[in-house]
Amino acid sequence: MSEIFKAHLDKFIPVTDEEFASIMNYFEIKSFAKKEDLLEEGQICRSNYFVIKGLLRKFFINEKGTEQTTDFALETWWMTDNFSFERKTPADFSIQTVEKSEVLTISSESQEKLLNDFPIMEKYFRIVYQRAFAANQRRVKYIFTYSKEDFYFSLIKQYPDFVQRVPQYLIASFLGFTPEYLSEIRKRIVS
Amino acid sequence: MSEIFKAHLDKFIPVTDEEFASIMNYFEIKSFAKKEDLLEEGQICRSNYFVIKGLLRKFFINEKGTEQTTDFALETWWMTDNFSFERKTPADFSIQTVEKSEVLTISSESQEKLLNDFPIMEKYFRIVYQRAFAANQRRVKYIFTYSKEDFYFSLIKQYPDFVQRVPQYLIASFLGFTPEYLSEIRKRIVS
């Protein structure tokens, strides 16, 4: 499974096979069942997760007591509770598998050690966080700009495979809809 | 002015005075008047800005034709349109000074060259983007969680100096209020 991570790294930084074998020692490969909890809101987040196969989501329980999904992580995406992972503070978010998943995990101590021992990984993570931040900035603009309905339409248009892959109740949880309301909108699109 | 940047870097990475003198060659120091445009939505963003003194804001024009402010950058904070800066695509945001400001600017070409010539700066920018991303993730949670009123109250509580420093019409533009509505809320707090 680790060749997926190697092919991914190759897009960002030069890493020999020998270096990669050493880099992999900082990670563990774990398998999770569908709907398995990786982190619960309020816990200390001990791991950063890299998805090799499957799908994760990040969510919190809103004031109505329902799950508000804020992010998904597909293959070759990272996911963690960033503040909690760095500062050992209680997590703002929960993380759960959406599908059966194969994941690389690394603890914050191992990640710090990896960055010290292989400074080229600083470049890799710099690019990863730079792009994640850029995407999040655009996300904030979208939240202010689009109505929930328009956001759903743009999701279908930009990421049709993703909308097909994710259960509808989670798309609803991501958009802040009830599943019933999403179902109504879908009927309207078909008719 | 550059000693402010040196003191800031010292918090993240070891840099000798000689190295710092070389690093400064990649930057320009610029002065901007109050309310001066550094970037307009739709332009290509050519610079990353580090605030030495003063205050910047990032905004876009929403569908009602009013300015929605999404971010502020105080002293020792970075600001750019991240996608546009990296990919040379039209900017999603405008950037403007709120106060007369002293700013370090670096072009994307110079920043790439700086990172190649001084790999220790990869670590610095990795930490900067990592924290910016973490803050933005929490921001998304706040947007979903707080009403605009509650968000204003938490701003006053967490950042009283900041709320004092920024003109009220810009606080309103950040919160998505009209200035009149913000003024009403403020009266309600006083009474």
Write the layout of secondary structure elements.
2 copies of one chain form a homodimer.
Chain A: H1 2-10, H2 17-24, E1 28-32, E2 37-39, E3 47-53, E4 56-61, E5 67-73, E6 78-79, H3 82-87, E7 94-97, E8 101-107, H4 108-117, H5 120-145, H6 148-158, H7 160-165, H8 168-175, H9 179-190
Antiparallel strand pairs in A: 1-8, 2-7, 3-6, 3-8, 4-5, 4-7
In short:
Chains A, B: It comes from Epilithonimonas hungarica. Two copies of one chain form a homodimer. Chain A has 191 residues and is α+β, with helices and mostly antiparallel strands.
Overview of this structure, please?
Chains A, B: One of its GO terms (molecular function) is kinase activity. Chains A, B: InterPro entries: cNMP-bd_dom (IPR000595), cNMP-bd_dom_sf (IPR018490), RmlC-like_jellyroll (IPR014710). Chains A, B: This is cAMP-binding domain of CRP or a regulatory subunit of cAMP-dependent protein kinases. Chains A, B: Keywords: Kinase, Transferase. The structure is a homodimer. Chain A has about 190 residues and is an alpha+beta fold. Chain A has a domain at about 1-115: Sandwich (Jelly Rolls). Helices cover about 50% and strands about 20% of the residues of chain A. Chain A is built from 9 helices and 8 strands. The first copy, chain A, has helices spanning about 1-10, 15-25, 80-85, 110-115, 120-145, 150-160, 160-165, 170-175, 180-190, and strands spanning about 30, 35-40, 45-55, 55-60, 65-75, 80, 95, 100-105. In chain A, the strands form 2 sheets. Chain A has a 4-stranded antiparallel beta sheet. In chain A, strands 2-7-4-5 form a 4-stranded antiparallel beta sheet. In chain A, a hairpin with a 5-residue loop joins strand 4 and strand 5. In chain A, helix 8 (about 170-175) crosses helix 9 (about 180-190). Chain A is globular, with a radius of gyration of 18 Å. The mean pLDDT of chain A is about 95. The interface between A and B is medium-sized, with 34 and 34 residues.
